[in-house]
Here is the input.
Amino acid sequence: MMNAVSGRDRSPAVTGPPSVVLSWAEISGICGTIAVQVTADGVPDVIVCLIRGGMVPGVLLSHVLGCRDLRGVSLTHTCADGINAAKTSHPVLFNPASAGDVRGRDVLLVDDVAGTGETALAAVTMIRNHGATRTRIAVCAVNTRNWNPAAPGPDECLDYIGGRYRGWVVFPWEQ
Here is the structure.
């Protein structure tokens, strides 16, 4: 977790094994549960996935929801892929035009994990600034160990949460 004042990483130094290793069956179940919740709120016009982790759940959700307009945006907050990788001081956006024209559209933003929520919130802000009329955020997992207790909680920032885990989550596409 980044300290907004100093920019220093305040995450605990954990070098042990991940908190949970999710299977393909578990991801399929998580995406199915999220799809039911999204459907109850209305199927989106567009699904925007955060590249790379959000692509697989985004594709799964696009099939279940019948939403064929699937896009990707590269926005990262980590410097590498390893467990407890160092974070940048703020999410970094690459190629903002990759989300395409979302003016007047209902957009579902999808990511694999939210550690601090900053990446998802930066992405949804970008989507709103590009004219989306409705934005929602779905994540497969929340790493509760990294969530800043002084910030609004995951339920206040994210619309759909597949699971909550205290520590690093490894997804099947990372194995």
In short: The chain has one domain: 20-174. DSSP finds four helices and nine strands in the chain. The radius of gyration is 15 Å. Residues 20-174 form a domain with the Rossmann fold fold (CATH 3.40.50.2020).
